[in-house]
Hints:
It is a single chain. It is built from 8 helices and no strands. By secondary structure, the protein is mainly α. α1 packs antiparallel against α2. InterPro entries: DUF3856, TPR-like_helical_dom_sf. It holds the Pfam family DUF3856.
Amino acid sequence: MKPLRSVAEAYLALSEAERQLQDGLHAEAAASCRGATDAARSIPSEEAFDHAGFEAFVHAVLAGALTGLGEHGAGLESADRALYYFNRRGELEEDGGKLWIRAVFSRGSALEGLGRRDEAFQAFRMAGEMLDERKGGVGGLEALRNAAADALVRLGRPTEPEKPAGYRAWWEFWS
């Protein structure tokens, strides 16, 4: 297969996965993500194609699909793989910024599903802050903003670790 055709198929499958995820078709979105990955793997490494970036895009969508299917461990792993790329090279104002926000949100959903409420709270708060920070349109992400706000209310404030009896903060020693 010609590389240009493989690139087109990969992005078409990713676009389809995003649409399916927005429609709540989680199993179909996961299958489309796998198809996008297969198409991208057929592109030779010497071609001018950002394999790592595309993989991050796929994992951002796949994390939401897996979490929606109740596969929280796999969803968390996928979100973390996407965030590994985005946290180093991501630009919030570019098109990939939407997927970056989605990966952070999916990480929060996966953490909540695993019972890690404090970490989930932090992820949902970060997703909300990223949505507020993004200057470009958030087309299609307004539902994500509402879901993040609902999650913050549902999770409440993160719990503070218990302090041992007689605990004093460092500044109290010097005052």
